[in-house]
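Suppose you are handed only two things: the residues of a chain and a line of SMILES describing flavin-adenine dinucleotide. What would the bound structure be? This form records exactly that question and the answer produced for it, so the two can be stored side by side and reused later without any lookup.

QUESTION INPUTS
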Amino acid sequence: MAESSADIVIVGGGIAGMTTAYYLAKSGVPSLVVERDAIGSHASGFAYGGLSPLSGFGIPGPQAEIAMDGMRLHRELSKSLLEETGIDVDFRMRSSLALAFTEADVRKLRAALPWQQQQPGYAVRWLDGAEARRVEPRIADEALGATLIEGGGAVEPYRLVLALTRAAERLGVRVRHGRAIGLRRDGGRVTGVVLERKVLSCATAVLALGPWSAEASDWIGVPIDVRPLKGQILRLQAPGPPVVCSVGWGHNYATTKTDGLLWAGTTEEEAGFDEESTLAARDEIGAALLRMLPAMADAQIAQQTACLRPVAADGLLVLGCVPGLDQVYVATGGARKGILYGPAMGQAIADLVLGRDTRVALDAFAPGRFAGAR
Ligand SMILES: Cc1cc2nc3c(=O)[nH]c(=O)nc-3n(C[C@H](O)[C@H](O)[C@H](O)COP(=O)(O)OP(=O)(O)OC[C@H]3O[C@@H](n4cnc5c(N)ncnc54)[C@H](O)[C@@H]3O)c2cc1C
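ANSWER OUTPUT
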C-alpha cells in the first residue's frame, strides 16, 4: 500500500472537520483533510443556517455554553473569512419568532423565557398574537402568541464551509479525496489513517465523519453511538415581500434567505442513510408552512433538499479525546445545531490537539461515554 504523510489527518470535510483544520492552521499547524465525497456536500452544505443559541436540545443545560461560544465565533468568522478569502458567508443578525398555536405551546415557550431573558447580548420577550402579526403581518390569525428573540443570526452554510476551506488551504492545509476505512495503530498511538488504497501516516487523527461516525467505532475500539436523522427543506419562490425574521413552530421554520427564496423546513426522519427527497416530506413541510404563514399557499417549489444530521444516542455533542489512544479525537453529534456549534467544535479540538485549555467545558461530550451503555 502506498504511503504519504502529514502530522495531522482530519477525516471529514463538513463543518466539524473544516473548522478544526482552519483553527489549527491559524495557530500555524497545517493538516491534511480527507473527504470521501466533496467538501460541504452533506448536511454542512445544505442546512438552513439558523444560529439560535437560546433554544434546542441541552439548552439551557450542557450545550448552552458551546452554543454561545459558537455564536461568538460566527460573528468573528464572518469578518475574518471575508478578509482572508473574499467570500461573504452571508452572516446576518436575524430575529426569530417561535409561534404558539395551542395553550400547551404557550406554556412551553413561556417556561423558557426567564432563562432566555437572563442571557447577555439577547433581547427576548413574549408577544401576544396581534403583536406577533405586527412583526410579520402574514403570521396566521390562529397563532396565540410568540417568543421574539433578537440577537440570533443566520449564515449560508455552504459558503461558510467553502470559505473555511479556502482560508485553510491558504495557510497550508491540504484537502484530498479519499475514504478512510481504518486507523493504523502502534499500541495506544495512532500512526496512520488507512484509506482504500493508501495509508496516510500521521501522529494525530481527528475523526469528523458526521452521521457516519459510528463507522469509526471499530477503528478506535470505543463505540461512537451516533445515528443519522434525516431532514428536508423546501426552497420556494414566494409571493410578497421577504419574511424578514425566522418564523418557527416546533421543529418547523421559514425565512427568506439571501438567495431571495423562502426556505421552509424541516422533517425529522429515521430513514437510515437515505438522502433522497420525498413527496411525503414536501407535503409535511408545506402543511406546516401554511399553518404558520397561510399567505404562502401560492409559493412555488424551486428546490427540495435532504440531508442527514449526526445525532448521538443521548442527543449531546461527541467532542474530545478518545480514551486509551494518544492524539485521536472525535468531533461530531451537532444534530440540529451543528452549524451553530461548528466553529466552537473546531476551536475546541484545535485547542486539545495543541495542548491548550479549551474555552468551553467538554466533560458532557466525552467520546468514551457510550462504552458502558452497550
Ligand atoms: C435539514 C437540516 C437543516 C439544518 N439546519 C441547521 C440550522 O439551521 N442550524 C444549525 O446550526 N444546524 C443545522 N443543521 C445541522 C447541521 O447541518 C449538522 O449538524 C452539521 O452540518 C453536521 O456537520 P458535520 O461536519 O458533523 O457532518 P457532515 O456535514 O455530514 O460532514 C461529514 C463529512 O464526513 C465525510 N465522511 C464520512 N465518512 C467518511 C470517511 N470514511 N472517509 C472520508 N470522509 C468521510 C462525509 O462525506 C461528510 O462530508 C441542519 C441539518 C439538516 C439535515
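WHAT STANDS OUT: The radius of gyration is 21 Å. The domain at 94-153+227-311 is CATH 3.30.9.10 (D-Amino Acid Oxidase; Chain A, domain 2).
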